[in-house]
Design goal:
- The chain has 366 residues and is of the alpha/beta class.
- The chain is built from 15 helices and twelve strands.
- It has helices at 9-16, 62-82, 98-101, 104-115, 131-137, 158-177, 196-205, 217-226, 236-240, 283-289, 297-300, 303-311, 317-325, 327-341, 345-365, and strands at residues 25-31, 36-44, 50-51, 54-57, 88-95, 121-122, 186-190, 209-213, 231-232, 247-250, 269-270, 293-294.
- Strands 1, 2, 3, 4, 5 and 6 form a six-stranded mixed beta sheet that branches. The chain has a six-stranded parallel beta sheet with strand order 9-8-7-10-11-12, with helices on both faces.
- Helix 6 (158-177) packs antiparallel against helix 12.
Length: 366
């Protein structure tokens, strides 16, 4: 069911374009009293209730917001499938600057919309939303994860997201250089926010050299003040051109790998936490043609969703950490499948995820 009342024609075109991924349900939410405008996209429930976070972002247009929700929810289906979770993929976006319009009233209204789906979609944190926000949403919606420990949740999921990305990097190093250690490798991290700053810690502990950048100067300063050995560059363009870079790690918003960045990328490996790193289909082949190993984003950044899924059954950190550690083996398996089939790793990951979802659909139709 899609509520299309008052939606511009260009947004409707975005909703129903077949290449967006064949979503089961898209809900457009509006609460005039609180100023809420949101999109909830459910891509698949073949494996179970759709699970994915809520992004709060000042989109340039409603069409951009819908497109992001569609892309992100599709990515969650694939991420949850390869993480071995019994969840489909969903994602929500709230339109607006969270620094300007986020209020308790708005979050409660959003919670009521999620609750109206009756458990088909389970929400959590994402860009622009935090544990405290999920505590508010949960007051209106029991299908809310990423809550604080005081409110029955697991707290910050970025800790395990970073740990999973680190495991993906180790697997990438094993496949590329025959050794999972990152000692003396130079890793460039674009975005040192929720996940990126935890990733810096793992890399330094493993003996890596780290270079960072972020659109927020204070985020970079927080890292370099804590770790003077970490270098900083002005922007992402400078980072991807850095000589001697072994691994490029996009950990901010998506689309970092595009027609402009891939030709000048100096790194031999790409492995990061950002969702939807490939700007469009075909970029994965461009990376492969240049001999750059790409660790599919939705594979390596699954640590956070592993945590929030576990919250639904009674959170146990060590159980989640052990499951997130398996991202190492999953990533290696994808590289092996890609080599055997003669395809880029992103295509191999898609095939494996689609196979698991197809088996679930077949079983459900019997």
């Amino acid at each position: 069911m899609t509520d299309v009342t008052g939606v511009p024609v260009d947004v409707l075109h975005t909703l129903f374009r077949s290449e967006q991924g064949g979503h089961e349900q898209v809900v457009l939410c509006q609460d005039r009293a609180s100023g809420l405008k949101a999109v909830i996209a459910i891509h698949s429930t073949a494996l179970g209730p759709a699970l994915g976070g809520t992004r709060f972002y000042p989109y340039a247009s409603e069409e951009d917001a819908v497109a992001d929700a569609l892309n992100l929810s599709r990515g969650m289906s694939y991420k949850n499938a390869l993480a071995g979770l019994d969840h489909g993929g969903g994602k929500a976006v709230i339109i607006g600057d969270p620094e300007q319009i986020k209020t308790e009233r708005l979050l409660l209204a959003y919670g009521r919309f999620v609750a109206s789906l009756g458990g088909r979609y389970v929400t959590a944190c994402d860009v622009g939303t935090y544990v405290a926000d999920m505590d508010v949403v949960a007051r209106e919606c029991r299908w809310t994860t990423g809550r604080s420990p005081e409110n029955g949740g697991a707290g910050d999921s970025s800790v395990l997201t970073a740990y999973g990305v680190f495991q993906g990097m180790r697997a990438s190093a094993q496949h590329r250089w025959g050794d999972p250690s990152l000692r003396d490798r130079t890793v460039g991290i674009a975005g040192v926010g929720k996940v990126g700053h935890h990733l810096v810690e793992h890399l330094l502990q493993d003996g890596a050299h780290v270079v960072v950048t972020d659109v927020r100067e204070q985020a970079v300063r927080a890292i370099t003040d804590r770790h003077p050995q970490v270098a900083a560059v002005a922007d992402n363009d400078a980072l991807i051109r850095t000589e001697g870079l072994d691994i490029y790690s996009p950990c901010a918003l998506g689309g970092a790998l595009n027609d402009e960045s891939v030709p000048v990328l100096t790194a031999a490996v790409v492995c990061g936490a950002a969702n939807n790193q490939l700007a469009h289909p075909g970029v994965e082949k461009d990376l492969s043609d240049r001999g750059i190993l790409y660790a599919p984003d939705y594979v390596v950044n699954a640590g956070g969703v592993i945590q929030v899924a576990d919250e639904l059954r009674g959170f146990d950190f060590e159980r989640c950490r052990a499951k997130a550690a398996k991202i190492f083996d999953t990533t290696l398996g994808i590289f092996a499948r890609a080599k055997a089939d003669g395809i880029p790793p992103a295509a191999a990951a898609d095939r494996l995820a689609e196979h698991r979802m197809a088996l679930a659909r077949e079983a459900g139709s019997r």
